[in-house]
Amino acid sequence: MDAYYTFVLPILMSSVAVWQLYNRLEPTGFVSSVTLLLGIPAALSYHLALAFSSTWSAVTSVFLLYWSSLVTLIALYRISSFHPLARYPGPLPCKISKGWMSYIAARKDMHRYVNGLHAKYGDVVRIGPNELSFRHGDLIEPILANKDLRKGPYYNLRTRDGVSSIDGTKDYSEHAARRRLWDRGLGAAMTKVYMDSLVNVVSELMQKLSNRQNEVVDISQWLSLAGFDFMGKIIFSVSFDMVKNEHDHNGLIKLVQKTTYICHILAQISWIYPYLLKIPGAAGTVKTARRIGVEMAEKRKNLGSNSYDLYHYLLDEEGLEKVKPSERFALREGFVAIIAGSETTATAATNTLYFLLKHPDVKRRLQKEIREVFPENGEISDCTKFNELPFLNACINESLRLLPPGLTGLQRQVDPRSGGKMLGSYFVPAGTNVSAHLYSIQRDPRYFSPLADTFWPDRWLSQDHYTLPSGEVITKDNLIHNRDVFLPFSTGQQNCAGKNVANMELRSLLVALLNQFDIEPAEGFRVGDYEEGLADVYVTLRGPLYVQLRSVH
Ligand code: HEM
User: Fold this and answer.
1) Cβ atoms within 10 A of the Cβ of 463, count?
2) Whose CA is nearest to atom 18 of ligand 1?
3) Nearest alpha carbon to residue 515 among 425, 389, 427
4) With a cut of 0.95, is the ipTM above it?
5) Burial of 163 by CB count in 10 Å (0-12 exposed, 13-18 middle, 19+ buried)?
6) What pLDDT, in 10s, does the model give residues 438-494?
7) Element (H, E) at 184
8) How far is residue 354's CA from residue 519's CA, in Å, rounded to a whole number?
9) Is 489 touching ligand 1 by the criterion CB < 6 Å?
10) Would you call 361 exposed, middle or buried from its count of C-beta atoms within 10 A (0-12, 13-18, 19+)?
11) Which residues bind heme (predicted)?
């Protein structure tokens, strides 16, 4: 009993007090964390040292008891009925710690995991101690296009030394000023300016592929090479020459993939990131990626440009802004632009080809449409002709519906200083992180029916009758097709800045490939393996899609 009063009780009382402090004030700063997690047990060890046989046993016993009681209190509170999110269902590990979602992120299948949770628990699921995922079309706009909600802690990794990239900017007025520059550089008018670069990249790709007609070709990898080459041109006016060299010779693609994967894991527990940065050698890949992005941007700035590119506008080289934009900020955008623009479009193009390979009848219909509109060999420079390809549009939309390249729910946060917020009929307490799980919503039969989980591009065509893949004919009254919830480029102020460019690139690549080649799965390759191997790391990581090509011209 004596030991209890002299040793156990003070430690338990201290951990209860610190737990209360964490609950109310959520301190995450370096000094407060060191004080609360190390300083207090160290001071207790010093004061209680006489109750132990040695200093070592005092330190280990006090630290063990202090930390374990703190962790137990936190876990019990999070699963208790006193927690503000107690009424929302979800699996136990999600309620206890975001560490669980870090593990799911490391497993790379968060899109399927969260989709499964929605199937089990319904439209709202607690996916973290302090986080809700929504699967309801009516809640997309209130979450993603609502100035009361800002980007959540998932995006904290996009800020370093007080400088955020565009997609990590939480202040809406600062974001609007920076987004204006991006919109100048990537707006609809710029697609014409970038067309020459695109035609060059696509022609080079077609040339290389036509030399490989008797080989097994990983079209997924080739589309990545082309995607990076095109981004190099339009962002920095540089040639990465990946298609020319037939290889990711500088390791840039690998670096982007590794960085997004690591960031996706860390972003679940983003409070840890500032500490990692202080450890020499830790988060090395992320630091390297940032450095390379800044170096490329700096090089571009020093060279100036002979032609228009994104940096022409990010650096405001024409002096269109009343106040010159901050160079420090502009230089931070380099790597974001590469990450946001390269693999996303390559993924959208590869996914579409995958669905076409899986549905040869759809592929034949699409090839017929393309070859009627673009009779010449691989000629794609007139992108106004893309409007004459409704079935291509339907196939791309259907692919983006089932497999949007950004697979993760986009996180926002209810203002911690507010009194909470109603999202539809759900009350969401202040400080809660929320996301709309577009992957699940876009596969929901309430919005797309029949065959919500099936690649059936006809649903995107306007007609009175539809023939299902089974041969059954349905009238348009039996079709549910809610375009409002089809948002692969997100919505609101922080929607995709590169949508116009992506749409042009995607169409150009698919038209050129399907016009020039007959494409079949490589012998012995199970096409379904491609989809099974898709990994959610916020954007998509893809495995190979092995094909055989035969030129038709
Ligand atoms: C099919 C291809 C693409 C898809 C599906 C796509 C999708 C998205 C999505 C869903 C977001 C919102 C991300 C979030 O809130 O976390 C986004 C943001 C963004 N995207 Fe794209 N994207 C594509 C291509 C591109 C291209 C080619 C660029 C050009 C470089 C680009 C630049 C950006 C930028 C800069 C943002 C951040 C915008 C902001 O925060 O204001 N994207 N994209």
Assistant:
1) 10
2) 496
3) 389
4) yes
5) middle
6) 999 999 999 999 999 999 999 999 999 999 999 999 999 999 999 999 999 999 999
7) helix 172-186
8) 11
9) yes
10) exposed
11) 496
> Which residue CA neighbors atom 15 of ligand 1 most closely?
410
**Which H or E run includes 475?**
strand 473-475
Residue 550 CA to ligand 1 center (angstroms) comes to: 34
Is pLDDT at 1 greater than 70 in this prediction?
Answer: no
* Ligand 1 pocket member 263 (CB < 6 A): no
Residue 497 C-alpha to ligand 1 middle, in angstroms?
6
Q: Is the CB of 260 under 6 A from ligand 1?
A: no
**pLDDT value of position 269:** 94
Q: Are 122 and 403 in contact (CB under 8 A)?
A: no
Ligand 1 centre and the CA of 339: distance in Å?
Answer: 9
- Residue 191, ligand 1, Cβ within 6 A: no
Please give the Cα distance from 289 to 141 (Å, whole number): 33
If 0-12 CB within 10 Å is exposed, 13-18 middle and 19+ buried, where does residue 189 land? exposed
- Cα 380 to chain centroid distance, Å, stands at 29
Check: pTM over 0.90? Answer yes or no.
yes
Neighbour-count burial for 126-136, b at 16+ CB within 10 Å, e otherwise? bbbbbbbbbbb
CA distances, 538 to each of 90, 101, 110, 224 (Å): 21, 13, 9, 17
The verdict on whether residue 496 carries a ligand-binding annotation is yes
